[in-house]
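Tokens as discussed.
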């Protein structure tokens, strides 16, 4: 499949005989990850490709899961891929609002956000962002915070008056994002943006990840969730669907609640240059590695 050797200036792998590639990967490959034999054939496929990864839910609140995820992202970097991480924060926001006795209301899976709430959202998101960046740095991998206060790349329009300070991405500063990547940093993106007046807006994390994936034409968009993937009306995992089938699942209300913006993001990304999107269970060990580097994959794959 090709030969790779270690690039001294980057974390990636370059051409070397297959047996040497084997030995290099073994040094950092997890014991309970996909088999090394399977990995080899996928390394070339994804080499230098941009992979947008959205994480949220329990992954952010469980130190073990978060550490495991970050280890996997660092492995992608070592294999020569270009990962971009977008983190959510819904459960953290829910917890903070409950502490303050503030009730949350949702419309089509999106949290209604007023002026008081947007400040709480920003505080929670910034804390998550700092924590993630710090863990990367402790593991000797360069990561760069991308928030509305530092390196903002997302400019929004108001989603709906009924939702308050909830925005939809109108423009992505691709140039700034590429500059961060060029410096060999992993961008850690908070799903918030600002409008033309400089007002802060919350963005559904899946929607933000989809906008980034579209803007840079990433090879893959990976949405980590707290469920196995997309389930049919018998609660069985659907391993692969196309956009037409996905729309039918929304129309027939088999997909509902918070899965609606997630699936709409998938469809939109695929219709705008992203090769494939996958919804996987972030609670399962090395689900990203199994999706990208094994024949079995993980979760639900959505293609055109």
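Sequence:
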């Amino acid at each position: 499949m090709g030969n790779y050797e270690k690039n001294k200036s980057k974390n990636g792998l370059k051409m070397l005989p297959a047996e040497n590639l084997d030995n290099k990967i073994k040094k950092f490959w997890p014991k309970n990850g996909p088999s090394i034999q399977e990995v080899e054939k996928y390394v070339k496929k994804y080499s230098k490709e941009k992979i947008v990864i959205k994480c949220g839910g329990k992954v952010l609140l469980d130190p073990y899961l978060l550490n495991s995820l970050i280890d996997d992202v660092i492995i992608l970097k070592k294999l020569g891929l270009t990962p971009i991480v977008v983190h959510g924060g819904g459960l953290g926001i829910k917890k903070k609002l409950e502490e303050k006795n503030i009730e949350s209301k949702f419309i089509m899976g999106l949290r209604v956000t007023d002026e008081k709430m947007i400040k709480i959202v920003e505080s929670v998101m910034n804390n998550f962002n700092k924590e993630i960046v710090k863990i990367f740095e402790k593991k000797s991998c360069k990561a760069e915070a991308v928030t509305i206060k530092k390196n903002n790349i997302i400019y929004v329009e108001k989603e709906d008056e009924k939702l308050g300070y909830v925005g939809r991405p109108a423009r992505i500063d691709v140039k700034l994002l590429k500059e961060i990547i060029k410096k060999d940093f992993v961008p850690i993106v908070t799903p918030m943006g600002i409008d033309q007046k400089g007002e802060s807006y919350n963005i559904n994390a899946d929607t933000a990840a989809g906008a980034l994936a579209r803007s840079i034409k990433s090879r893959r968009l990976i949405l980590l969730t707290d469920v196995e993937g997309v389930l049919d009306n018998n609660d069985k995992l659907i391993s692969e669907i196309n956009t037409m089938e996905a729309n039918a699942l929304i129309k027939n209300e088999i997909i509902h609640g918070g899965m609606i913006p997630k699936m709409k993001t998938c469809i939109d990304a695929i219709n705008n240059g992203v090769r494939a999107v996958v919804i996987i269970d972030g609670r399962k060990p090395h689900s990203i590695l199994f999706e990208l580097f094994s024949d079995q994959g993980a979760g639900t794959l959505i293609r055109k």
